[in-house]
Structure formats: structure tokens, C-alpha cells
Amino acid sequence: VFHGKKASPIHCNIRDKSNSREERSGEKAAEAVEVKLYGQIPPIEKMDASLSTLSNCEKLSLSTNCIEKIANLNGLKKLTILSLGRNNIKNLNGLEAVGETLEELWISYNLIEKLKGIHAMRKLQVLYMSNNLVKDWAEFGKLADLPNLVDLVFVGNPIEEKYSAEGIWVDEATKRLTRLKKLDGVPVIKQVEEEAED
């Protein structure tokens, strides 16, 4: 496990964090299976090109920083879990680079309104996307393009708040995403229709 150092120069990027960690521990970031750079002080602002050196990384944690844009994931050919919660991310552009491997995306507490590009995440099973800005069924419906999605957390999005207040969120969401096994941390109970007797 590779941990970033929590004190650095004023302008912070991933390369600075990786280099300082390597100097302290002797561990090479490029060889790490799990890279933890969450909650950095000062916070990381950009997913810079040095990310592409993390070729062995399966789990990358960049949550609780000031990242605005997903970028430079091309070299992460083994990445299965990506944690980007509590940043300033506005869209999902850049995720297509890990679309063939990513199984879990943790991206709660960001500024995402549109789900354009989510269809590239063919292996995605878990999506934690609470407290973002998705507000309509057209955007939510794009999640139906994810054939393996079984666990979704969407609480705190305007669409969830509106339909939960009306008491129909679970029914409406699971009607659109029929493969879900868990919604907002609660197992989905499928209604079995009884066959009409002649």
C-alpha cells in the first residue's frame, strides 16, 4: 500500500506526493497495488501525467482533495477500484481509459450533473455517487447501459430527494435499473408477480 505524505509544497500534484513517499519509504509507487493519496494537505488539484506510471495499481484513492477533472488514467491497466469522493469533479469525462477494468467507482460529494460517458464502464458493478447534482430520469437512465451494475448509492442527488419525498424513489429507480441488488445501501426486494389463475 502506497500512502501519500500529508505535508508538501503549496502547489500540490500527484508527482510531488509520489516522489516524497518514495524517498521516505523506498517503496516504488509504480509497483504498488494500492495507492492512497486521499486528504492531502495541501490538496491535490490535478490528476497529472504521473498517474500513468502506476501500472500495477488496482485501487487508487484520491478522495478529499480539490480535483476538478478526471484525467491521465491511461496507464492504469489493472485499476478496478477508483475513489474520487469529496472533490470538485463536474463530469465523468476521462473514465473511458479504465472502462475495461473498473469495477467500483466511488465518486460521492462532487458536482456531477450529467452522466455522459458512463456507458464506457462495461465492468462497473458498484457506483457510489451520492450527493451530486443529477436531477432527471434521462440522466439517471444512462445507468441502464451498465450491464454489471448491482450496487448503487444515489442518495442526496436532486432526483433522489424529489422522488423519495413523494415515496416512489425505490420503485422508480429499480424499474429503470432492473439488475440492481442494492440501492442506497438497502437490498432490493424484487416483487414477484403472481400468475393469474384461469
From TrEMBL:
<protein>
    <recommendedName>
        <fullName>Dynein axonemal light chain 1</fullName>
    </recommendedName>
</protein>
<keyword id="KW-0505">Motor protein</keyword>
<keyword id="KW-0433">Leucine-rich repeat</keyword>
<comment type="similarity">
    <text>Belongs to the dynein light chain LC1-type family.</text>
</comment>
<dbReference type="GO" id="GO:0005874">
    <property type="term" value="C:microtubule"/>
</dbReference>
<dbReference type="GO" id="GO:0030286">
    <property type="term" value="C:dynein complex"/>
</dbReference>
<dbReference type="GO" id="GO:0005930">
    <property type="term" value="C:axoneme"/>
</dbReference>
<dbReference type="InterPro" id="IPR025875">
    <property type="entry name" value="Leu-rich_rpt_4"/>
</dbReference>
<dbReference type="GO" id="GO:0045504">
    <property type="term" value="F:dynein heavy chain binding"/>
</dbReference>
<keyword id="KW-0963">Cytoplasm</keyword>
<keyword id="KW-0966">Cell projection</keyword>
<keyword id="KW-0677">Repeat</keyword>
<dbReference type="GO" id="GO:0043014">
    <property type="term" value="F:alpha-tubulin binding"/>
</dbReference>
<keyword id="KW-0243">Dynein</keyword>
<dbReference type="InterPro" id="IPR001611">
    <property type="entry name" value="Leu-rich_rpt"/>
</dbReference>
<dbReference type="InterPro" id="IPR032675">
    <property type="entry name" value="LRR_dom_sf"/>
</dbReference>
<dbReference type="Pfam" id="PF12799">
    <property type="entry name" value="LRR_4"/>
</dbReference>
<keyword id="KW-0493">Microtubule</keyword>
<keyword id="KW-0206">Cytoskeleton</keyword>
<dbReference type="GO" id="GO:0036158">
    <property type="term" value="P:outer dynein arm assembly"/>
</dbReference>
